[in-house]
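tool_call predict_complex ligand=manganese (II) ion
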Amino acid sequence: MSKKPNLPIDRLLSELGSLAQISAAEPPVVTRVVFSEADLRARAYVKGLCSAAGLTVHEDAIGNTFARWQGSDPDLAPVGTGSHIDAIPNAGSYDGTVGALGGLEAIRVLQRLGFSPRRSIELVIFTAEEPTCFGIGCLGSRMMAKILTPSQALILRDKEGRGLEELRAQAGFVGSLESVALPAGRFHQFVELHIEQGPMLEHEGIDLGLVTHIAGPASMRVVIEGEGGHAGGKLMPGRKDALAAAAELILVLEAAAKSSGSTDTVGTVGVCEVFPGAVNSIPSRVRLETDIRDTDGARRDRVLDTLRAACADVSARRGVTVTTELVNADPPTICDTEILAAMETAAAEAGRTYKKMAAHAYHDSSFMAVIAPVAMLFIPCRGGVSHRPDEYASPEWIAGGVHVLARTLARLAS
Ligand code: GLV
Ligand code: MN
Ligand code: MN
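tool_result ok
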C-alpha cells in the first residue's frame, strides 16, 4: 500500500503538548483527575479550541462536553467522535487526548478541505473516563447510556468521602442528573480514535487497528478483616493477618486469569490498602480493588467466580472475614460493521495498513454502544506503554489516525 502524504498536523501536536502541560504533577508526568483544578483548566483549553474552530459547545450536568459542527441537514442525528482528557495519576500525554484533540483536528481537516457534511459531526469529551476519583470508569458515558442511574451515581464517593453532587457543583456543573441520559438515536454513529495501549500494532509494523470488540471490564472490591496486634509480641500461631490472606487472593486472581485458556483474559489488583500500615503492626484490615477483563463475558465471569470461591476458602482457613462488592461487570462490546467498513475504505484510500483487532482497555465507546452503533480506530503507541509518563505516539502514527478518522467521518456524515 503506498501511503498518501498526510496533511501537516503541527498544530495538533503543539496542542497535545500544551494540554500535557496542564497537569497536577510536574510535566512530563500528567495527572488530571476529574473535577480537579488541572481538569478544569484542560477543559477550558479544549473548549476554547472547539469554539475557535467554529463549533457550538455545550456541557451537560456532569461536564460531558459536546462540540458540534453543523451539517447541511441539522435535523439528522449527528455522527459523534471524541474521547476523554482526564488522566490517572502518573500518566502520559496520549491516552484519550489523541481521540479528543485528534477528533477536533479531523473536523478541522475536513473544514480546510471545504467539505460540507450532511449530518452534523459532534465532538464529545467524556467526563471521568478514568476511575481514579469515584472508583468506576467511564462515569460520563455510563450516565449518558443510563447504565449508571442518577441514584447509583449519587452514592459514589471519592477517597475523601466527597460525592458527585459536591464535586460537580464545585466544578460549576449544575442541572439535574436525569438530564445526562441520552436517548438511543441521539447519535447516528460514534467512532473513537485512541492509542492502542498495547504492543501489537507497533510490533507488527501496522498503521492502524480497526477495533471489532472491546473487552468487558469488571471490578470487585474485596475487604479482609483480620486481627491486628504487635508484630513482635504476637507469635505466629493463631494470627489473623489480613494482608497474608489478601496475598493468597491476589495470587488466586493472577492464576485464574492466566489459566483461562485465552490471553484476552486479564486480572489485576491495582489497589491494596493496608491498615494500620505500620511496619511493626500486624495488618488488621486490607482493601483490594481488582480489575478483571475479557473479550468473552462468560470467561471473565468464571474468573470472578474463582475469586469469590477463594474468598470463602481463605476466610474459613484463616479465620478472617472477607466481604466482596461487585463494583461493575460490563459486557464486552461488539463494534458496528458499517462503521468498520467505512474505516476500512478510508484506511485503504489513505494507503494505510490496518488490521482488525480487539481492544483490551475499556473506553467510553463501550457505553456509547448502548445508544448508538460504535467502532474504534487504534494507532500504535511505543512499546505498548500506556498509563505511564513515557507513553508515546509518533507524529506519523497520530497523523495517520487523524486522517483516516477524517475520511471515516466524511463517509459517515455524507
Ligand atoms: C482505561 O483507562 C482503562 O483502564 O482501560
Ligand atoms: Mn486510561
Ligand atoms: Mn483512554
